[in-house]
Amino acid sequence: MSVSHPRDPLHGITLETIIKELVEQYGWVEMGRRVPIRCFLHDPSVKSSLTFLRKTPWARERVEGCYIAYKGM
Fold it and tell me: Structural domains in the chain?
């Protein structure tokens, strides 16, 4: 059982987990519609998404926002 951090709802959740859960829920096409970035639109994979999102703070924030909305945090 994980204990949530009082100020960070994503504390302890890896970026890989976030991507995998969102893709399972929405699929790559919907992820590309919600966050229109190349790693979701052209030959998407978890690996390419991780690489891009780790280097691009604005895109990571959008993906994390989608995850927070999906989980209702």
Answer: 15-71 (1.10.720.30)
